[in-house]
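Cross-posted from the bioinformatics board.
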Amino acid sequence: QTVVTQEPSLTVSPGGTVTLTCASSTGAVTSANSPNWFQQKPGQAPRPLIYGANNRHSWTPARFSGSLLGDKAALTLSGVLPEDEADYYCLLYNGADQDWVFGGGTKLTVL
Amino acid sequence: QGQLAQSGAEVQRPGASVKVSCKASGRSFVNYHMHWARQAPGQGLEWMGLISSVDGTTTYAPNFRGRVTLTRDKSTSTFFLSLNSLRGDDTAVYYCARSLEFWGQGTLVIVSS
């Protein structure tokens, strides 16, 4: 069974830049894994940010960008705002089993 | 557009079954996948499965095969998640998500004797 790994926690200063990554136990993450990124704040449903590795939804601020970085998927936040403090989850498609797997999530602290 | 309204919270006994509904509105019933995920208290998200809106084809996560069933009613644009043989660790908020883009508000299921 595929395991998707994210940094458990990261801290960034307001106005700074931070990159969150998403790795797969099956090997390099590619566009075929269709990486999705979600933001979740306490008591709220997940909010989609990125789909297909690097596509923003219409509501996603430009300071959020997705990419493939080496053998991982990545979410970069530039010009971080205090309101970006949240949990972030990646979700990867597993073509071999035709299912999807969430990463464990990254708790981002803006301090 | 793409709004999803889920059914209300439930309390079930261990060993029982639960059925959560998710009604789609705001868009026509075109071809998309309705995903289901859950989140136990203080834990991360867990993908459970998906169902095609058109032909009802399903895919389930390995951890849930044999215990979860996804169905849909095309006439009412309503999707259902059924989970049987409930255990305490099934206590979670259950979400539906249309094409991973639009999410329901979540349904809390508590499993307790």
